[in-house]
Amino acid sequence: MFEARFQTFDDPVSLGESAQRLQALRAELSRRGFDGFVVPRGDRHQNETVPPSEERLAWLSGFTGSAGLAIVLRDSASIFVDGRYLLQVRDQVDTNAFRVEHSVDTPLSEWMERHLAAGTKLGYDPWLHTVESVEKMRRACETAGATLTPVTNNPIDAVWTDRPPPPLGPIVLHALRHAGEDAAAKLGRVRAELDKIRAGALVVSDPQAIAWTFNIRGSDVAHTPLPLAFGLIPKEGRAFLYVDGRKLTNAVRDALENLADIRSPDRFADDLRALAARSTIRIDQATAADAIATIIAEAGGKVSRGPDPIALLKAVKNTTEINGAREAHRRDGAAVVRFLAWFDREAPKGKLTEIEAVAALESFRRETGHLKDISFDTIAGAGPNGAIVHYRVTRKTNRKISPGELCLIDSGGQYEEGTTDITRTLTVGQPTAEMRERFTRVLKGHIAIARAIFPEGTTGAQLDSFARQSLWEAGIDFDHGTGHGVGSYLSVHEGPARIAKLGTTSLKRGMILSNEPGYYKTGQYGIRIENLVLVVEAAAPPGAEKPLNAFETLTLAPIDRRLIARDMLSAVETAWLDRYHARVVSSLSPLVDAETNAWLAEATAPLSSA
Questions:
Q1: pLDDT attached to residue 85
Q2: What is the mean pLDDT of residues 594-603?
Q3: CATH among 3.30.70.660, 1.10.468.10, 3.30.1330.30, 3.40.350.10 for 172-315
Q4: Confidence (pTM)
């Protein structure tokens, strides 16, 4: 019997609880003299993954997605999500209490201009919104004749009677054999970047940046080894790290004190005021809370708004991190292949459930002996559940994986050497002609990205359409980006680079990104094929006038050949798949048992010889 130790299957808040909680919040807002309140999904660091104590949107509405926002007014409430979550939000949220809005079709600022009545006093928590988001909301409120007012204490916390305590996950040192560069050298590079942008100091508000800079890892949030902390890095003098001392052993504290002054989080605001009085302070426009900018302004300081330079430094992996990523993917690939062979034996029996598949996959990863955690809640969507892009199985939604269905499994592991993320779409029994046609179009897009050769300076936005061309030819598309950045034993979603319509950061050698086009047919099935890729130097053809880059595929696992309409693939595409499968076999066959090897040989048989 397999067991899931890193993921739970608890159901979200019931619809009845949601209505009661809305009522309690409205009563608290009325007591404070507010007409409404903005409830984002985030914490003081704008994290995608937040600890249970910060899950205010989920507590209020039942929505557990990683991105969303609600506005609660006296007589109405609306919840805003993007296309990834339109199906999920309607399953989780009481639509009698919350109106669902598509955040792309109806941007928050436009909604506020149209729906806020003149004189409305709308509250917000300045620690949970960025400077840019507050500016947009304030302009929209002014247009509507309303006012946007910060609150001192979050009103949800006043009515959330059983709110969990803040996390106290222990912090550990990330060994140099995995980091590849010591923290003192990293601090030196950060200070050199501050000199370039003419800033006297940097506020480090993103815990990913904290973890990378100081070579530490934490356990404050699920599946991502983050230490929740703030930092201040002056261009000259010692850095400051603001972290609860209960997270530090004596050995870790001693090591960190060689790099920075370790201070209690409640000293951050006062130290920032003192520094702002004599320096220009760079804050990250994507992650810095509005409260941070206010503290600097009230101290008479000057804010330099722009990207945190650490984000790009962190995204470009060094040789040690790249070799670690390759090793993590070999180890992870062996576990995934063992799972796929097991799945092929068990799923056709018609008794396997989504939860059992999740537990089995995690168990195979744990058996590597190196798994630290999964990198996110595993998605195992059978049939119609596969059409929910970020589906999370619960005991309520759990269903059997039946013959004739597709099953979409998106998962990943956290290893000290690196972070993995892989999606495979599997057929149980005979797929329909439509399933094969749609799958092959997704595969053609995946191969187009994998084979791309592009000049230095190319952005993800310029490559995104490569993944969509075959889908567009059939009048279909997918409502998410083609790829996101991935950290090195850090977050599975890492900026600043991405392959997406809005991906404006140049792709640099050493970056690791996902390649994951998809297609989703509501109520029937979902398809996604995801590998992680590394940006590498491409061989220059004769007469080339620019440096060229390409992608090295890191992920190692078969792509389901039974779902491929072979006549839709070109000879070049078929050759790419056969070469990829040959590499999967040569890399993984020494790591798996004889029974799995027999399955692997059949699953990777060349298409060109069929």
A1: 81
A2: 98
A3: 3.40.350.10
A4: 0.94
